[in-house]
């Protein structure tokens, strides 16, 4: 089965992105998708995205305007609970559409 | 996590003041380096940490691990909200009544704790209870219980 690589971006590239990464990993596993996550700062996101190794970016801080070439989804619902399920739905749909 | 890190019904004029007061507690207890408070303040300016949770807005100021000696959490509940800018939209300010100052040495080791923290942000009844609690021992106990609960 395909294993998806998700880039989790937050301001410091550590604390918040680790929270989000863990929750995304767990929720996608529950939905039958295997996910590997990498944490990064907003300023590092473009380099990672252009490496071609990542399927999707989830972020809690705004991403600098750029052409990332892969889908980007705001993950703040993971922290606040507002729109959290909708966020997981969107991540799942995005990954499943990539697998086709 | 020490009881003295929990300050109920604090009166402060700005988020900088709250971060300074909480940070000083961590510094006095040896949990953070002398550079910690300035690093948190600077980060808050460029990458703010306000979160709109619905009923009771929170903020989670923090900074890089290099300024942290030992991982812990400090919390101030505010008598009157202070403004923080939103993490997702730094141009927008929100009034925050619960400020969780995070000192994180190694996020990978703290994943469980961080996850439980997000569960706290989503528990409106608990957030309201924290706001109403008038003594630091009471808030410390609420936090300890919430962070210890399995699967948040």
Structure notes:
The complex is a heterodimer of chains A (100) and B (152). Chain A is 45% helix and 21% strand. Chain A has 100 residues and is α/β, with parallel strands linked by helices. Chain A has a 4-stranded parallel sheet with strand order 2-1-3-4. Chain A is globular and about 30 Å long. Chain A starts with a strand and ends with a helix. The relative contact order of chain A is 0.22. Chain B is α/β, with parallel strands linked by helices and 152 residues long. Chain B has helices at residues 15-28, 36-46, 111-121, 124-132, 136-148, and strands at residues 6-10, 50-51, 58-59, 72-85, 93-103. In chain B, strands 1-4-5-3-2 form a 5-stranded mixed sheet. Chain A binds chain B through residues 11-12, 14-16, 18-19, 22-23, 39, 42, 60-62, 74, 76, 78-82, 84, and chain B through 43, 46-47, 49, 51-54, 60, 62-65, 87-90, 102, 104, 107-108, 110-111, 114-115, 117-118, 121-122.
Summarize, please:
Chain A: Residues 5-69 form the Phosphotransferase system EIIB component type 2/3 domain. The complex is a heterodimer of chains A (100) and B (152). Chain A is α/β, with parallel strands linked by helices.
- The helix-and-strand class of chain A reads alpha/beta
Overall average pLDDT of chain B? 93
Helix proportion of residues of chain B, in percent?
A: 25-40%
Tell me the fraction of residues in β-strands of chain A, as a range.
15-25%
Task: Based on Cα principal axes, name the global outline of chain A.
Answer: globular
The CATH topology of chain A turns out to be Rossmann fold
Instruction: Estimate the helix proportion of chain A, in percent.
Output: 40-55%
Top CATH class of chain B: Alpha Beta
Kindly report the name of the CATH homologous superfamily of chain A.
Response regulator
Q: Please report the total strand number of chain B as a whole number.
A: 5
Q: Determine the CATH topology of chain B.
A: Mannitol-specific EII, Chain A
Structural class of the helix and strand makeup of chain B?
alpha/beta
N/C terminus separation of chain A: 12 Å
Which architecture of chain A would the CATH scheme give at its second level?
A: 3-Layer(aba) Sandwich
If you compute it from the alpha carbons, what radius of gyration of chain A comes out, rounded to the nearest whole angstrom?
12 Å
